Amino acid sequence: MASDESGGIIWFLIGIIVLTMVGVFLSLFADKQISFSKSKNNVHDQIIAGARLRNTLRDELERKEKLLVVSSDKNGFIEAKLRSQLAQNAANSRYIAETKNLNKGLADQISSLGMEFDQYRNRYRDHIWKSAIGEKFESLTLRNGRKYEHVVITRITSEGISILHSHGSARIPYTNLENSWKDRFQWHGH
Length: 190
Known about the structure:
It is a single chain. By secondary structure, this protein is α+β, with helices and mostly antiparallel strands. The protein folds into 2 domains: about 1-125; about 135-185. It has 4 helices and 4 strands. It has helices spanning about 1-30, 35-70, 75-130, 180-185, and strands at about 135-140, 145-155, 160-165, 170-175. Strands 1-2-3-4 form a 4-stranded antiparallel β-sheet. α2 (about 35-70) packs antiparallel against α3.
């Protein structure tokens, strides 16, 4: 009876692992509207949860295997159950190995997506910076209250912007600009 229950528990756990992995795949491919960095974190968390579940299943299988060895006697029925359980353990071991390979593949995909996103962000930032050179504004007010009149953007860097204005030129660190400027020129994370 205990062997039937352990078999049921094992199948239940295998089902949970399969559902978890299916969930990982669906979440990875279903919602392409989420930003790459959020997807990366979500998939990474799911991989960790899957790995934890895999370890729990492996520990449970080892425990069940020890119980079967300790409690088995020479009865043919018990030996047959033991062989069946060992075969199931072998199948579970193969499943665990496949899951590890799948986890590695997903981790590689996360890394690749991260690199692709960084490259895209850099290309986008370069494009935005170059296209803004020469833009003119009637006035520009900084966060500290300073105001410039008849402003023309001459240069954009990772530190801020350089401008010409009615009284000369100035370099303005991005920290002195309003958030809309930070968003536009991608000065996040600085």
